[in-house]
Write a structure and sequence with these properties.
heterodimer, A: 304 residues, mainly alpha, MetI-like fold, two-stranded antiparallel sheet, 15 helices, globular, B: 296 residues, 75% helix, MetI-like_sf (chain B), membrane (chain B), MetI-like (chain B)
Chain lengths: 304, 296
């Protein structure tokens, strides 16, 4: 404590510069942690935090026994796995080609266009999806009609949404990921390629034996980092595309959408907090595990 | 460095690249194209034949309708622009200041404080306790502060900023200190100007989160005059709320109000600025992102 106060006096200005940030996180991130207690109560609006009835593990028990927890976990994990794996592969491949292509104008134009979806709101993505897939005016159904095929009601069936959701997530994120990989490619020394050329390697062999192996660490790191957050959902994506369409929940409900509905639709504070806490704790353990693995294999990449 | 003589394999490789990237680019802009095309379509065409790649009959009707009673859109624009400008500048100031302090070797507790900030990305109370705190304890329901405060600081932005500033040579700070410069002066006059790509990147992240926010408005804002742009768009897309004010004009004229095309026109109006802004910041963005993230 003594050294701390001494430090404080010595670096007064630096400490004051950091203070607003510390206060911010204390209020908006640490205070809500106290509210985890809701997960163990049967929340009542009059009672508030400590006046509500304590029910122990009942909320968790119910979530577990009703199968909700399992379905949410399954959906969240499987969607995220698809996002992470397909996304990284697509980003990696497009970065490799983009780095190689000679046409400057083409390069700039395609990069900008591929980056464009990253900048728009999820509300707009929801509108796009509706434009494409709704039964009355959707583009797909217009095309089907022109081909004299029967209309398909996407909003009545769970089957296509897995692909639509994954597709739009890839669509929105490819530009951003591509840039990370592009930067990694740019940092590869030109000498490797020169040497390979002298040995008579063509561009395919160069890509296979130089670019890909040298990008592997970045690839593995990015995958591992994202695995830590595998229980966190893309709330905006799911909510804007599916909304409150209960017909599709079985295939599209993730923890975040469930928690949101507990708050905004069902007013089930205890249950929603329990699901949120489960997500937080599970995620926390996952990140610690992933970080442990990274530390064992490549220490300099560890998160902490 | 390309070789002078292009080998056949390189031609094949590039060809694949051109085709793949062209397809990807098309895949990325098609929804935008459909939106713009839809906004210029004739309402009757949309109703009878659905959205088309190219409008059958070009029409300004939807835009006319949007700007016939523009108050609601202008107001939402005002809310969003105000939030974006104030939030981005304030957020940038606080984030860069925190990044500066945490990147300084002399600041002994920088690792403890870094962890204090970083821990919030590892574990959180979750949406519901946070919501109850915002509403019951901080009384931010239906307040602009509920839209301004949450995106203001993020642990990721601070870490990105810290890493970016770490790449600035220490000798700059040291020589300034010898000349008697104070910490804030060093931050403001020396480090900030050298951090332009980092600032542009974080600034864009912040601007995007303010401009594109609909979620905070959805859970906190109850008065329609406080709706930000994207939330108004969401409301229009979900319920055609804004149209009701216009509908009366159409009933008397005995024509269908342009519901579908109007939705698209509002979407274009709400999206335009951020899409127009990004080519200008893209250059910095790429630079800032790669320096901050690769070392991450």
């Amino acid at each position: 404590m003594h050294t701390f106060l001494f430090e404080l006096r010595r670096n007064k200005v630096l400490f004051f510069m950091l203070l607003p940030t510390l206060v911010f996180f204390l209020i908006f991130s640490y205070f809500p942690m106290v509210g985890i207690y809701y997960a163990f109560t049967q929340y009542s609006f009059e009672g508030g935090l400590f006046g509500s009835k304590f029910v122990g593990m009942k909320n968790f028990e119910f979530l577990y026994k009703s199968g909700v927890l399992w379905n949410l976990t399954k959906n969240t994990v499987l969607y995220n796995l698809a996002f992470i794996i397909l996304g990284n592969i697509l980003q990696l491949i497009s970065a490799i080609f983009l780095a190689q292509i000679p046409g400057k104008l083409f390069k700039k134009t395609t990069q900008s266009l591929i980056f464009l979806p990253y900048f728009i709101s999820w509300v707009l993505v929801g509108a796009f999806v509706y434009n494409l897939f709704n039964i009355d005016t959707g583009v797909i159904n217009s095309l089907l009609a022109q081909l004299h095929l029967p209309a398909y009601d996407f909003y009545m069936s769970t089957a296509p949404w897995k692909y639509i959701i994954v597709g739009f997530n890839l669509w929105k994120g490819i530009g951003y990921g591509m840039i990370i990989y592009l930067a990694a490619i740019m940092s590869i020394s030109e000498e490797y390629y020169e040497a390979a050329k002298i040995d008579g390697a063509n561009i395919f062999t160069q890509t296979r034996h130089i670019t890909l192996p040298l990008l592997m660490p970045t690839f593995v790191m990015l995958i591992l980092f994202s695995l830590g957050g595998i229980l966190k959902g893309q709330f905006d994506l799911f909510y804007q595309i599916i909304g409150n369409n209960g017909l599709l929940f079985e295939a599209t409900d993730i923890i975040d959408t469930y928690v949101f509905r507990s708050l905004a639709v069902n007013f089930n504070i205890g249950m929603g907090t329990a699901a949120g806490l489960y997500q937080s704790l599970f995620g926390f353990v996952l990140i610690l595990t992933v970080n442990y693995i990274i530390k064992k294999t490549r220490e300099d990449y560890a998160l902490f | 460095m390309r070789t002078f003589k292009t080998e056949p394999s390189t031609i094949v490789f590039n060809l694949i690249g051109y085709v793949l990237l062209t397809l990807l680019a098309l895949f990325c802009i098609t929804p935008f194209w459909l939106m713009v095309s839809g906004s210029f379509s004739d309402e009757m065409d949309i109703v009878s034949r659905g959205f088309q790649i190219i409008p059958d009959n070009f029409s300004w009707e939807a835009y006319k309708s949007v700007f016939q009673t523009p108050e609601q859109i202008y107001r939402a624009y005002g809310v969003t622009v105000g939030l974006t400008v104030v939030g981005s500048l304030l957020g940038l100031f606080l984030t860069s200041m925190a990044g500066f302090v945490l990147s300084r070797q002399e600041f002994k507790y920088r690792n403890s404080f870094s962890f204090f900030i970083y821990f919030t990305t590892l574990f959180s109370g979750g949406l519901i306790p946070w919501y109850i705190l915002m509403v019951n304890q901080l009384h931010l329901k239906d307040s602009y502060l509920a839209l301004l405060l949450p995106p203001l600081l993020s642990a990721w932005n601070i870490i990105l900023m810290k890493n970016f500033m770490k790449s600035i040579p220490d000798s700059i700070v040291e020589s300034a200190k010898i000349d008697g410069a104070g910490e804030f002066y060093i931050y403001w006059k020396l480090i900030l100007p050298l951090s332009t790509p980092g600032l542009a990147t974080i600034g864009l992240f912040l601007a995007l989160s303010y401009w594109n926010d609909w979620f905070l408005a959805n859970i906190f804002i109850t008065s329609p005059e406080k709706y930000p742009l994207q939330f108004l768009l969401y409301k229009i897309l979900a319920s055609a709320a804004v149209l009701q004010t216009n509908a009366a004009n159409y009933v008397s004229a005995n024509v269908t109000p342009p519901t579908e095309t109007l939705k698209m026109a509002v979407a274009v109006v709400a999206t335009g600025p951020i899409v127009l802004l990004y080519p200008f910041v893209q250059r910095y963005f790429v630079k800032g992102l790669t320096i901050g993230a690769v070392k991450g």
